[in-house]
Amino acid sequence: MKKSIPYITNKYFIAAVLFIVWMLFYDQRDYFQQKERRDELKKLEQKKAYYEQEIEKTKKELNDLQNNPAAIEKYARERYLMKKDGEDIFIIEDSAKN
User: Fold this and answer.
1) Residues 6+ apart with CB under 8 A from 81
2) pTM confidence score
């Protein structure tokens, strides 16, 4: 115990400990705030990747709708429940989705 007391009372050791405590808890850019920001950044990057995929999917669908008449008919039937003359449409809702 007596051997460790000179190290603990050393002014450089005390200054280093105070500096570390200050940087961890009291600084404007403390460790915990940086960790929260890193986590938030990861979430935002995941959202960005998701939206980029959705944009690519939508662009592909738009290109298909502009160039393929069969795709237009399929889109109209699925999204807007359009039908040809003389056809009957039956809508079946899945109760598990609700």
Assistant:
1) 89, 91
2) 0.58
